[in-house]
Design brief:
The complex is a heterodimer. Chain A is mostly helical. Chain A contains 5 helices and no strands. Chain A starts with about 25 loop residues before the first helix and ends with a helix. The chains are: A mainly alpha, B mainly alpha. Chain A: It is found in: Membrane.
């Protein structure tokens, strides 16, 4: 490399506190990072999910403990805390599901790969996943 | 071609490509189909859902069959996703290797537990 060669540009302004918070993220970008975050949340809650399955199908007694977990709690965790964890799981799953289908749609359809569809489909994903989260969450917390 | 064998062989980094990209999509779709199958059965239960109805779904042999597939699909799907996250955010190779091992142990453990739960029924 000679001295007259232009130095390759570097972009290191990605400090999470001082830089990332100042950038305007498009809807599609918000959906995308939440897709990653929701996957991460489900990864860490996976043993909890297996525990829910285990307790609910193993026996009548464990099923009783399962339903009790949502009211009086289980172990050191209070009932409301378990409900919150399940709500997080519900949101994470619905968001990841909708954004995932959107991913596959954009994989199989050339027509869908443009900025307009990126924006509109992201809005639809948010609408569907957040609405279903609200509906299922209301049922979970006994609002109907 | 660069030297990538013997003592210079690189064992981490993105050379997984097409197989795992496709596997993520396929496993995702399979899990989506399982969700529909499970949801349909739950919605078709008349009256309150007690132990008999809920566990009865998973006692059916065909449900056990597809649930196993779904659990394996989940483990693979999660592995590809977590590996992508680690590759994006953790540059030091030694640390990334340790974290990948943790992810694998976590996923294999959950998979084993899930299979055990299914077959106790």
């Amino acid at each position: 490399m000679t001295d007259t060669t232009k130095k390759r540009p570097e972009f290191r302004n990605i400090n999470p506190i001082s830089d990332l918070t100042t950038y305007r993220l498009p809807v599609a970008a918000k959906l995308s990072i939440l897709h990653r975050a929701s996957g991460l949340v489900m990864f860490f809650l996976l043993p909890f999910v297996v525990w829910l399955l285990d307790t609910s199908i193993s026996s009548e007694f464990s099923y009783a403990r399962f339903t009790a977990a949502f009211n009086t709690g289980a172990g050191i965790f209070a009932g409301w805390f378990i409900k919150l964890a399940v709500l997080a799981l519900i949101w994470a799953y619905l968001h990841h599901f909708c954004a995932g289908l959107r991913h596959i749609w954009m994989d199989v359809s050339h027509k869908s790969v443009n900025k307009e569809f990126g924006k509109s489909s992201a809005i639809v994903c948010f609408a569907i996943s957040l609405a279903l989260t609200a509906i299922l969450g209301a049922k979970l917390f006994g609002l109907y | 071609m660069s030297v990538n064998y013997g003592s210079k062989r690189v064992v981490t980094g993105a050379h997984y490509g097409l197989r795992d990209w496709l596997a993520q999509r396929v496993t995702g779709l399979l899990m989506a189909l399982f969700t529909v199958a499970l949801l349909a059965q739950v919605l078709l239960i008349k009256g309150p859902i007690g132990y008999e109805q809920w566990a009865g779904i998973f006692a059916q042999q065909w449900m056990k069959f597809i649930t196993v597939g779904t659990l394996v699909a989940l483990a693979y799907h999660a592995w590809v996703g977590m590996r992508e996250i680690l590759m994006d955010y953790v540059q030091p190779v030694g640390l990334r290797l340790v974290l990948q091992i943790f992810v694998l142990v976590w996923l294999v453990g959950c998979l084993g537990w899930g299979l055990q739960v299914l077959w106790r029924l």
